Amino acid sequence: MGVLSDKISREQLKPGDHIYSWRTAHIYAHHGIYTVEGMVIHFTRASFQEIDTGTESDHNLLTSAPSDPLDPPCPRCGYHLSLRGGVIYTCLDCFLHGGDLYLFRYDVSLAFFIAKFRGGTCTLAAADPPEVVIHRATFLLQHGFGVYQIFKNNCEDFAIYCKTGLLVFANTSVGLSGQAVALFAIVSAIISSPLRFLTTGFTGLAVIGWAMFSVSRLVSDLAIRRDVIKVSVERLVAYSGLDEQIITNITKEDFITETALED
User: Fold this and answer.
1) How far apart are CA 68 and CA 86, in angstroms?
2) Catalytic site residue from 30, 77, 94, 122
3) Is 59 a catalytic residue?
4) Any catalytic annotation for residue 30?
5) What is the reported pTM?
6) Which listed site, 130, 205, 212, 218, has its alpha carbon 20 to 30 Å from 12?
7) Which candidate in 77, 94, 155, 162 is catalytic?
8) Tell me: the pLDDT tens digits for 137-161?
9) Is residue 42 annotated as part of the catalytic site, yes or no?
Protein backbone atom coordinates (compact mmCIF):
# COMPACT_ATOMS: atom_id res chain seq x y z
CA MET A 1 0.00 0.00 0.00
CA GLY A 2 1.46 3.35 -1.03
CA VAL A 3 1.44 6.10 -3.63
CA LEU A 4 0.85 3.76 -6.56
CA SER A 5 -1.91 1.71 -4.95
CA ASP A 6 -3.89 1.57 -1.70
CA LYS A 7 -5.12 -1.97 -2.31
CA ILE A 8 -5.39 -4.02 0.87
CA SER A 9 -6.42 -7.54 1.83
CA ARG A 10 -9.50 -8.39 3.86
CA GLU A 11 -7.27 -9.52 6.71
CA GLN A 12 -5.92 -5.96 7.03
CA LEU A 13 -9.35 -4.40 7.59
CA LYS A 14 -10.13 -2.73 10.91
CA PRO A 15 -13.49 -1.49 12.23
CA GLY A 16 -14.08 2.11 11.17
CA ASP A 17 -11.94 1.91 8.03
CA HIS A 18 -13.03 3.99 5.05
CA ILE A 19 -12.83 1.62 2.11
CA TYR A 20 -13.60 1.89 -1.59
CA SER A 21 -13.71 -0.19 -4.75
CA TRP A 22 -13.35 0.99 -8.33
CA ARG A 23 -16.27 0.53 -10.71
CA THR A 24 -16.61 0.50 -14.52
CA ALA A 25 -12.96 0.37 -15.64
CA HIS A 26 -11.79 2.65 -12.80
CA ILE A 27 -14.00 5.54 -13.95
CA TYR A 28 -15.34 6.05 -10.43
CA ALA A 29 -15.22 4.36 -7.03
CA HIS A 30 -17.82 3.31 -4.48
CA HIS A 31 -17.05 4.17 -0.82
CA GLY A 32 -18.19 2.84 2.54
CA ILE A 33 -17.35 2.28 6.20
CA TYR A 34 -16.21 -1.15 7.33
CA THR A 35 -17.77 -2.25 10.62
CA VAL A 36 -17.18 -5.80 11.89
CA GLU A 37 -17.32 -9.42 10.70
CA GLY A 38 -17.16 -8.60 7.00
CA MET A 39 -19.97 -6.03 6.97
CA VAL A 40 -20.03 -2.53 5.45
CA ILE A 41 -22.29 0.53 5.81
CA HIS A 42 -22.48 2.55 2.61
CA PHE A 43 -24.61 5.10 0.83
CA THR A 44 -26.02 4.35 -2.62
CA ARG A 45 -28.91 5.09 -4.89
CA ALA A 46 -31.24 2.46 -6.29
CA SER A 47 -30.69 1.23 -9.81
CA PHE A 48 -32.84 2.77 -12.55
CA GLN A 49 -33.20 6.04 -10.66
CA GLU A 50 -32.02 9.44 -11.78
CA ILE A 51 -29.81 11.56 -9.56
CA ASP A 52 -31.86 13.98 -7.44
CA THR A 53 -35.29 13.16 -8.90
CA GLY A 54 -35.81 9.50 -7.98
CA THR A 55 -37.76 8.91 -11.20
CA GLU A 56 -37.70 5.53 -12.89
CA SER A 57 -35.68 6.32 -16.01
CA ASP A 58 -32.25 6.61 -17.58
CA HIS A 59 -30.71 3.42 -16.23
CA ASN A 60 -27.48 4.25 -18.06
CA LEU A 61 -26.50 6.74 -15.36
CA LEU A 62 -23.68 5.75 -13.04
CA THR A 63 -24.81 3.55 -10.18
CA SER A 64 -22.98 1.80 -7.39
CA ALA A 65 -25.48 -1.05 -7.17
CA PRO A 66 -26.03 -4.09 -9.43
CA SER A 67 -28.58 -3.23 -12.09
CA ASP A 68 -30.44 -6.49 -12.67
CA PRO A 69 -33.61 -6.57 -10.55
CA LEU A 70 -33.92 -10.31 -11.23
CA ASP A 71 -30.73 -11.11 -9.31
CA PRO A 72 -31.47 -13.16 -6.16
CA PRO A 73 -30.75 -11.68 -2.71
CA CYS A 74 -27.26 -12.19 -1.33
CA PRO A 75 -27.04 -15.55 0.51
CA ARG A 76 -24.67 -14.02 3.09
CA CYS A 77 -26.38 -10.75 4.09
CA GLY A 78 -29.78 -11.21 2.43
CA TYR A 79 -29.61 -7.84 0.75
CA HIS A 80 -30.88 -7.07 -2.75
CA LEU A 81 -28.90 -4.00 -3.80
CA SER A 82 -30.84 -3.29 -6.99
CA LEU A 83 -34.14 -2.65 -5.18
CA ARG A 84 -33.27 0.07 -2.69
CA GLY A 85 -31.00 3.06 -2.26
CA GLY A 86 -29.95 5.12 0.75
CA VAL A 87 -27.70 4.10 3.62
CA ILE A 88 -27.46 0.31 3.56
CA TYR A 89 -25.74 -2.49 5.49
CA THR A 90 -24.29 -5.30 3.39
CA CYS A 91 -21.54 -7.85 3.38
CA LEU A 92 -18.16 -6.94 1.94
CA ASP A 93 -18.78 -9.06 -1.17
CA CYS A 94 -21.90 -7.07 -2.04
CA PHE A 95 -20.03 -3.83 -1.43
CA LEU A 96 -17.11 -4.82 -3.67
CA HIS A 97 -19.39 -6.24 -6.38
CA GLY A 98 -16.47 -8.18 -7.86
CA GLY A 99 -13.96 -5.34 -7.52
CA ASP A 100 -10.76 -5.02 -5.51
CA LEU A 101 -10.57 -3.59 -1.99
CA TYR A 102 -8.82 -0.27 -1.31
CA LEU A 103 -8.25 1.82 1.83
CA PHE A 104 -8.94 5.57 1.81
CA ARG A 105 -6.09 7.29 3.66
CA TYR A 106 -6.38 10.18 6.13
CA ASP A 107 -3.80 12.60 7.52
CA VAL A 108 -1.44 12.06 4.59
CA SER A 109 1.54 14.33 3.90
CA LEU A 110 1.35 17.14 1.35
CA ALA A 111 3.82 15.34 -0.91
CA PHE A 112 1.78 12.14 -0.79
CA PHE A 113 -1.46 14.01 -1.52
CA ILE A 114 -0.03 15.76 -4.59
CA ALA A 115 1.56 12.52 -5.84
CA LYS A 116 -1.83 10.76 -5.79
CA PHE A 117 -3.23 11.72 -9.18
CA ARG A 118 -6.64 10.16 -8.64
CA GLY A 119 -9.07 12.06 -6.47
CA GLY A 120 -11.14 10.24 -3.88
CA THR A 121 -8.25 8.20 -2.46
CA CYS A 122 -6.82 10.29 0.39
CA THR A 123 -7.03 13.57 2.32
CA LEU A 124 -4.82 15.78 4.45
CA ALA A 125 -7.51 15.81 7.15
CA ALA A 126 -7.30 13.61 10.23
CA ALA A 127 -9.92 10.98 11.04
CA ASP A 128 -11.80 10.56 14.30
CA PRO A 129 -11.47 7.44 16.50
CA PRO A 130 -13.02 4.23 15.07
CA GLU A 131 -15.77 4.06 17.68
CA VAL A 132 -16.94 7.57 16.74
CA VAL A 133 -16.84 6.68 13.04
CA ILE A 134 -18.95 3.56 13.53
CA HIS A 135 -21.41 5.46 15.74
CA ARG A 136 -22.02 8.00 12.96
CA ALA A 137 -22.37 5.29 10.32
CA THR A 138 -24.82 3.18 12.33
CA PHE A 139 -26.84 6.26 13.33
CA LEU A 140 -27.15 7.26 9.68
CA LEU A 141 -28.06 3.68 8.79
CA GLN A 142 -31.14 4.15 10.96
CA HIS A 143 -31.96 7.73 9.96
CA GLY A 144 -30.57 8.26 6.44
CA PHE A 145 -28.15 10.70 4.80
CA GLY A 146 -30.50 12.68 2.59
CA VAL A 147 -30.95 12.47 -1.16
CA TYR A 148 -28.11 11.01 -3.21
CA GLN A 149 -26.51 13.62 -5.47
CA ILE A 150 -23.56 12.71 -7.64
CA PHE A 151 -21.55 15.90 -6.98
CA LYS A 152 -22.71 17.08 -3.55
CA ASN A 153 -23.97 14.13 -1.51
CA ASN A 154 -22.58 10.84 -2.71
CA CYS A 155 -21.07 7.71 -1.18
CA GLU A 156 -17.68 9.36 -0.66
CA ASP A 157 -19.29 12.37 1.07
CA PHE A 158 -21.04 9.88 3.38
CA ALA A 159 -17.85 8.00 4.25
CA ILE A 160 -15.85 11.20 4.77
CA TYR A 161 -18.54 12.59 7.07
CA CYS A 162 -18.53 9.37 9.09
CA LYS A 163 -14.73 9.56 9.44
CA THR A 164 -14.47 13.29 10.23
CA GLY A 165 -17.90 14.72 11.12
CA LEU A 166 -17.27 17.51 8.61
CA LEU A 167 -19.89 19.03 6.31
CA VAL A 168 -19.83 21.81 3.72
CA PHE A 169 -21.89 24.78 4.95
CA ALA A 170 -21.66 26.91 1.79
CA ASN A 171 -23.95 26.59 -1.24
CA THR A 172 -21.34 25.21 -3.62
CA SER A 173 -21.56 22.94 -6.64
CA VAL A 174 -19.41 20.23 -5.06
CA GLY A 175 -19.27 18.57 -1.64
CA LEU A 176 -16.37 16.83 0.12
CA SER A 177 -15.97 14.09 -2.49
CA GLY A 178 -12.42 13.95 -3.85
CA GLN A 179 -13.70 12.35 -7.04
CA ALA A 180 -16.03 15.27 -7.73
CA VAL A 181 -13.31 17.78 -6.77
CA ALA A 182 -10.85 16.10 -9.15
CA LEU A 183 -13.33 16.37 -12.01
CA PHE A 184 -13.80 20.08 -11.39
CA ALA A 185 -10.02 20.48 -11.04
CA ILE A 186 -9.46 18.92 -14.45
CA VAL A 187 -11.96 21.28 -16.06
CA SER A 188 -10.34 24.22 -14.27
CA ALA A 189 -6.88 23.19 -15.43
CA ILE A 190 -8.02 22.99 -19.04
CA ILE A 191 -10.15 26.09 -19.50
CA SER A 192 -9.81 28.43 -16.54
CA SER A 193 -6.14 29.34 -16.32
CA PRO A 194 -4.75 32.33 -18.29
CA LEU A 195 -1.34 30.67 -17.88
CA ARG A 196 -2.17 28.40 -20.82
CA PHE A 197 -1.40 31.32 -23.14
CA LEU A 198 2.22 31.52 -21.90
CA THR A 199 3.32 28.49 -23.90
CA THR A 200 2.28 26.60 -26.99
CA GLY A 201 4.53 23.59 -26.48
CA PHE A 202 3.02 20.30 -25.34
CA THR A 203 5.44 19.94 -22.42
CA GLY A 204 4.75 23.47 -21.20
CA LEU A 205 1.01 22.98 -21.45
CA ALA A 206 1.29 19.67 -19.59
CA VAL A 207 3.30 21.24 -16.76
CA ILE A 208 0.89 24.17 -16.43
CA GLY A 209 -2.10 21.84 -16.56
CA TRP A 210 -0.64 19.57 -13.90
CA ALA A 211 0.19 22.53 -11.66
CA MET A 212 -3.32 23.99 -11.96
CA PHE A 213 -4.87 20.57 -11.38
CA SER A 214 -2.76 19.98 -8.25
CA VAL A 215 -3.50 23.42 -6.81
CA SER A 216 -7.23 23.03 -7.47
CA ARG A 217 -7.27 19.66 -5.72
CA LEU A 218 -5.23 20.99 -2.80
CA VAL A 219 -7.37 24.05 -2.05
CA SER A 220 -10.50 21.88 -2.32
CA ASP A 221 -9.31 19.30 0.22
CA LEU A 222 -11.41 19.32 3.38
CA ALA A 223 -8.33 20.03 5.53
CA ILE A 224 -7.75 23.27 3.58
CA ARG A 225 -11.28 24.42 2.76
CA ARG A 226 -12.80 27.16 4.89
CA ASP A 227 -16.41 26.22 4.19
CA VAL A 228 -16.51 23.04 6.28
CA ILE A 229 -17.65 22.63 9.87
CA LYS A 230 -17.94 19.75 12.31
CA VAL A 231 -21.57 18.77 12.95
CA SER A 232 -22.71 16.01 15.28
CA VAL A 233 -24.64 13.22 13.62
CA GLU A 234 -27.57 13.76 15.97
CA ARG A 235 -27.81 17.43 14.96
CA LEU A 236 -27.46 16.53 11.30
CA VAL A 237 -30.30 14.01 11.45
CA ALA A 238 -32.51 16.38 13.46
CA TYR A 239 -32.60 18.75 10.48
CA SER A 240 -32.41 16.18 7.69
CA GLY A 241 -35.98 16.87 6.59
CA LEU A 242 -35.35 20.56 6.04
CA ASP A 243 -34.29 22.17 2.79
CA GLU A 244 -30.69 22.85 1.85
CA GLN A 245 -30.76 26.57 2.68
CA ILE A 246 -31.96 25.95 6.25
CA ILE A 247 -29.33 23.27 6.78
CA THR A 248 -26.71 25.67 5.41
CA ASN A 249 -27.80 28.29 7.95
CA ILE A 250 -27.63 25.73 10.76
CA THR A 251 -24.05 24.74 9.90
CA LYS A 252 -23.15 28.42 9.67
CA GLU A 253 -24.50 28.85 13.21
CA ASP A 254 -22.30 25.96 14.35
CA PHE A 255 -19.32 27.57 12.61
CA ILE A 256 -19.92 30.93 14.32
CA THR A 257 -20.35 29.24 17.72
CA GLU A 258 -17.21 27.15 17.32
CA THR A 259 -15.17 30.17 16.19
CA ALA A 260 -16.36 32.16 19.21
CA LEU A 261 -15.34 29.35 21.55
CA GLU A 262 -11.89 29.20 19.97
CA ASP A 263 -11.45 32.96 20.44
Assistant:
1) 18
2) 30
3) no
4) yes
5) 0.75
6) 218
7) 155
8) 999 999 999 888 887 788 999 999 9
9) yes
